[in-house]
Amino acid sequence: xxxxxxxxxPAGLTSHDVVNRVRRILQERSVGHLGTLDPLxxxxxxxVIGNLTRLAQFYTSSEKxxxxxxxxxxxxxxxDAEGEATSVSQAVTLSVAEVRQFAIxxxxxxxxxxxxxxxxxxxGVPAYKLARKHAEFELKPVLVEIKxxxxxxxxxxxxxFRARVASGTYMRSVAHDMGQLMGCGAHLESLRRTAVxxxxxxxxxxxxxxxxxxxxxxxxxxxxxxxxxxxxxxSITANxxxxxxxxxxxxxxxxxxxxxxxxxxxxxxRELIAIATxxxxxxxxxxxxxxxxxxxxxxxxx
Length: 302
Hints:
Layout: E1 3-9, H1 15-26, E2 31-33, E3 42-49, E4 64-72, H2 96-103, E5 108-112, E6 121-122, E7 125-126, H3 127-132, E8 142-155, E9 158-165, H4 171-182, E10 186-196, E11 199-200, H5 207-215, E12 235-237, H6 240-247, E13 252-253, E14 262-267, E15 271-280, E16 283-289, H7 294-297
Parallel strand pairs: 3-10, 12-14
Antiparallel strand pairs: 1-3, 2-3, 4-9, 4-10, 5-8, 6-7, 8-9, 10-11, 13-16, 14-15, 15-16
Helix pairs in contact: 1-5
């Protein structure tokens, strides 16, 4: 089974929990995700299945879009609602104008300190494992980019927002840092991811919907059409001879795509067989092969 599937992750599960659930439902061991969501967070979690797990390398820097709520009045050790309070709770009443004024400082390219409870590695160990043991460690600021950060509503001590960010940005840190800047403490109360790269909520399915579709034999209806993957790359439909050469790892001539560096290669409308890279002039070679030669995969007749 080679496919891309978008799950609407529920709160309370880790991204790895979701992967394990999907493995059991589909009876498929080769399942991976394209970008971790915290247990508290919900929304778009793209999964790659079978040979299409090899596409993960093209999504490491994908842009992400979020909606969420920041609660002001106290900070937590995890920077979200699941953590323990690290400051005395104080009553605050905020205005839209006030919060928006502070939000301006978190737009563009900024230095951001990752949360202590995060997957950032410290000498090869995830920071959250050290934090759980109350071990002392130091996280270093990283340069992130917040392309859009819009405060949509403020209700007493809570502010809802929409954000569009580059890969590696922590909205938990944004909430925490805003609270520090405003002098009242804050944490991320809720977060919903609405898009990753070309994948949106309209593409997503719950785990219950996945189970029902699998039970009724309609599972392929939930998969993303391969032609929608990596829309920034041009595509070509290979004839049988070209497809055989690509699957065998041999170079092929593609004069119509001579200006492209990477190309999606299809056999028919739905079968994505390779991502090819230009090696010289109009000559392309498979960077990754996603579909083996079916004839070679068949046992010999006796």
